[in-house]
Amino acid sequence: MLERPKRKNPVLRTRLPTLPPAARSRIALGLTAAAALGRFELQQCRDCGDVQYPPREACQRCLSINIHWKLQSGDGELLADTMLHHSNDLFFRERLPWRLGLIKLGSGPTVVAHLHGSIRKVPEKVTVRAMLDRAGQAVLVALPEKETPNMADDRQLREFTCDPKFRKVLITDGKTSLGQSLVKGFVKAGADLIWVGHAEPWKNFPGFQEIKSLQQASLVPLDLTDSRNVREVAAEIGGKVDIVVNNAEHHRAFGIGNRAGVETARAEMDVNYFGLLRLAQELGPAMRSRGADGQSSAVAWVNLLSIYALANFPPHGTFSASKAAAHSLAQCLRAEMRPAGVRVVNVFPGPLDDEWNQLLPPPKLAPAALARAVIKALQDGIEDVYPGDVAQEWLARWRDNPKALEKELSS
Amino acid sequence: MSSLLNLTKDLFKGKIKVVDLTHTLSPEFPHISLPPEMGQAWPFRIEEVSRYDERGPAWYWNNFSCGEHTGTHFDAPVHWVSGKDLPRNAVDSIPPENFIGPACVIDCSKQSAKDADFLLTKKFILQWEKKHGRIPPRAWVLMRTDWSRRADDPVAYQNYDETGQHTPGPDTDAVKFLVEERDILGFGTESIGTDAGQAYHLRPPYPCHYYMHGAGRYGLQCLTNLDQLPPTGAVVIAAPLKIRNGSGSPLRVLALMENS
After folding, report:
1. What is the pTM (predicted TM-score) of this model?
2. Which residues of A touch B27 (CB under 8 A)?
3. A277/chain B closest Cα distance in angstroms
4. CB-based burial of residue B168 (10 Å sphere; 0-12 exposed, 13-18 middle, 19+ buried)?
5. Which of A158, A159, A333, A356 is most buried, by the most CB atoms less than 10 A from its CB?
6. Complex ipTM, two decimals?
7. Within an 8 Å CB–CB cutoff, is residue A206 touching chain B?
């Protein structure tokens, strides 16, 4: 079981972040694309049905190019294991010893995977998952077939997840129902300390008093539209934040024609887009410097986006546009945080059950359900989260045919 | 010697003191806040352009943004629907001599300390006149509440509860009296708004905005240092930025007073 890390020895140098090998062919990125969503997919031949690994341009059995990515159950059997005591790779060198195994998947191929510590015997039934490593690339990880106690605490597994346990979290807006659910969720997930941002201190929102009284919570005045305030907060706590959850957003339900002027759209951009930019400029450098800071290193940056970031929802047209801008910037942030191994997690919910979606019919995502999805994504090491039925359905339609989705949304 | 030259001489000698009635513009300074579905004024925000660095090696400067009604600010008649059709009703067209006038400071600080919803009445003004003399025409009437002492604490300054804001201001009769019977230039307060925090529930809603601007008079808000002014005898200079058809503007409000 994971122990609470000791306080850092301030006379020792903080290690610089290193990354596991990141090179992948374009074909192999298919594995990463699925892992980003928490899915384990391998190529399967449509002609002969063969499932293959590693990914290739053609079927290894019949040479057909008619192959597609197919979801795998991950059921397999450990054939052999080995403990690595030496590596010339900087990342693994610092994490030795490291245990690997050879696993025969039920669907056919034999794969090399990182082994969870509670897998002891050979042979043994295991479940293989594709997970993102610190370089943001998919690797295969073998987990015990059935859940074991404190499974998430495994030293090797924690290199692939962003588990909040014993970590320090900044939630940028604690005044909304979502913000409060996030605070409570992180307390439950074992976070050590949760800084809770709140703008416009004179506005008291329901539930906020309760958050103030939580022992792990520490309030910080934070308004993402105020550059100086963001800079000061980052200066004050930036060197300690392990996980950022940027849930501050401005949301109004207008398109172009039903709201005169640009003030509402500008306010949305100022929080949803420029707010992220300000926060990333000020907090990003400090987090990048702590990507390998021991057991509780800086590990994740979560952006609350919207499924409307993929395709504009005209009744909330300017909000959609601000979220599309934020999505694009989040991709830039992901690239810039990558060298430090800090994962940028983008969350694309459908409509939340809040006052700005009052007139939208159900299903609407409960703020508490969204908070659970965020924490689960961190624990599972997922990079792109589409929580709830609406988000899942939109994602499926968008992946199938983005133009068709645009036409459907405009009718 | 001309009276103007004498004035500058007295300023230099310290016989005339300048009191700054202005709060510093900063992002933290409390700003007006309307129900969230309504259009909102920008709060004061500031972004650095360069600071002797690669963005501009030898110079430091900022861009700032804010609404017309931010910080210590001026309200022009065109701000309110009742003043929308008056001539010379915007900050760029108001006759500039109207920016300068004698100040009458009505001290309501004790009453406001006891009751955040304190309303200044005509009776209260008449009692003040008994002591300090009749309010002259074209005067700035300033309601001293010491509310400015709360400015470092946005929660206390805004003073919201679930029924809205609680800050002192004038009642309807007081405003009508000042406009119709005393012909004042304008009315100034220390809180956000020339009207009281709960003035939406007066008749008409926001009477100071309604009658003052309806009669072509002005408003000054978020003033400070009124406690340094004598009840009468000071002169206020309150010239807003010359924004085309502007409804108001942040400004530097200065008071000149004789040093006793």
Report:
1. 0.94
2. 223, 226, 228-229
3. 13
4. buried
5. A333
6. 0.92
7. no
